[in-house]
């Protein structure tokens, strides 16, 4: 009965990073540049994969979807964050908060599954090249993509529905720069044990299972690469896999740190700094790490630029 005696807030106030105006303006400029590079880099990769026939393979199909996810979950967070850097009142509506939470959770979970699919693709290409057309057929790729978006949507919907059924009978000030689940749960005056348990279980299942797939795939790749007699072939494969593993380690490390801890151990100020990396910074670097260090992408980009130059 007590939980029903409350009024749902119509908006939330986001604390953000600082109230010091010169620093807020500086952060606005920095994150605007980062977001612009994220959108331009990832959009460029999507266009390049779709217009160049030599890049229309499973690996680049997954990469273009990864780029779409990077744009999407960065766009769910960054534009509102940029507005709040210059706003005197850093507010977000109740429905805006729910949508931001849903889209971010959906795209972030989907990205974990896409990264696992990419690792499986590399495993099939390097460890089972003769079976590669069967193991990573067009149908298999589409199934991976559908599974990623459906799983991300379902788990995110569960979190949002349960979070916004809670009574917020105290403050409406969210100590974060976006509507994330842990800082929102901290505002509720009801027992959030079930929410925390589901957050741990669902995020834990997706992040841990996909990480295990990635780890096993790259372990098998490592064993195969070590058996290659040519040092040139070994170095090329190691270079590609190492850059992928570095990106995966940072991405998963930050996500595991954020969501696979007991709710009592959350430090919201620390979490804001960590969240900046996987919501704003990593999406900018992914096209560079996964693609623009790749010779095929470089050649395709060079041909595209040369063709456009000739037409002019």
Q: What does this 3D model show about the protein?
A:
This protein is 75% helix and 3% strand. The protein contains ten helices and three strands. The longest helix has 34 residues, at 94-127. The mean pLDDT is 84.
Secondary structure blueprint with pairings:
Elements: E1 11-14, H1 21-51, H2 58-86, E2 91-93, H3 94-127, H4 132-135, H5 138-163, E3 173-174, H6 181-185, H7 193-226, H8 231-259, H9 268-292, H10 295-311
Parallel strand pairs: 1-3
Antiparallel strand pairs: 1-2
Helix pairs in contact: 1-2, 1-9, 2-3, 2-9, 3-5, 3-7, 5-7, 7-8, 8-9
How would you concisely characterize the structure shown here?
The protein has 312 residues and is mainly alpha-helical. It has helices at 21-51, 58-86, 94-127, 132-135, 138-163, 181-185, 193-226, 231-259, 268-292, 295-311; strands at residues 11-14, 91-93, 173-174.
The shape is globular
> In total, how many beta strands?
3
Strand order of the largest sheet: 2-1-3
Rg to the nearest angstrom? 21 Å
Structural class: mainly alpha
Order of helices and strands: EHHEHHHEHHHHH
What characterizes the major β-sheet?
Answer: 3 strands, mixed
- N- and C-termini, Cα separation: 72 Å
Q: Please state the average pLDDT score.
A: 84
Question: What helical percentage do the residues reach?
Answer: over 70%
Beta-strand content bin: under 5%
Low-confidence stretches: none
């Amino acid at each position: 009965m007590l939980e029903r005696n409350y009024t749902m807030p119509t908006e939330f106030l986001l604390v953000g990073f600082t109230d010091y105006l010169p620093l807020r303006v500086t952060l606005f400029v920095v994150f605007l540049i980062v977001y612009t590079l994220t959108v331009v880099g990832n959009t460029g990769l999507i266009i390049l994969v779709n217009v160049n026939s030599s890049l229309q393979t499973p690996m680049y199909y997954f990469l273009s979807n990864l780029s779409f996810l990077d744009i999407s979950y960065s766009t769910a967070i960054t534009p509102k964050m940029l507005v709040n850097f210059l706003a005197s009142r850093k507010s977000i509506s109740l429905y805006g908060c729910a949508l931001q939470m849903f889209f971010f959770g959906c795209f972030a979970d989907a990205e974990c599954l896409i990264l696992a699919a990419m690792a499986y693709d590399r495993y099939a290409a390097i460890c089972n090249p003769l079976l590669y057309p069967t193991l990573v057929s067009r149908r298999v790729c589409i199934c991976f993509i559908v599974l990623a978006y459906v799983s991300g949507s379902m788990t995110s919907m569960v979190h949002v529905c349960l979070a916004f059924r809670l009574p917020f009978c105290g403050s409406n000030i969210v100590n974060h720069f976006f509507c994330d689940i842990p800082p929102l749960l901290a505002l509720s005056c009801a027992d959030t044990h079930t929410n925390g348990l589901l957050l741990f279980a669902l995020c834990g299942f997706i992040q841990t299972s996909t990480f295990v797939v990635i780890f096993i795939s790259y372990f098998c790749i490592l064993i195969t690469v070590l058996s290659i007699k040519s040092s040139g072939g070994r170095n090329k494969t190691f270079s590609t896999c190492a850059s992928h593993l570095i990106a995966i380690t940072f991405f998963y490390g930050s996500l595991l740190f954020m969501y696979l801890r007991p709710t009592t151990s959350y430090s919201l100020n620390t979490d804001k700094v960590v969240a900046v990396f996987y919501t704003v910074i990593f999406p900018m670097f992914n096209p560079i790490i996964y693609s623009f260090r790749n010779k095929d992408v470089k050649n395709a980009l060079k041909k595209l630029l040369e063709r456009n130059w000739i037409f002019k």
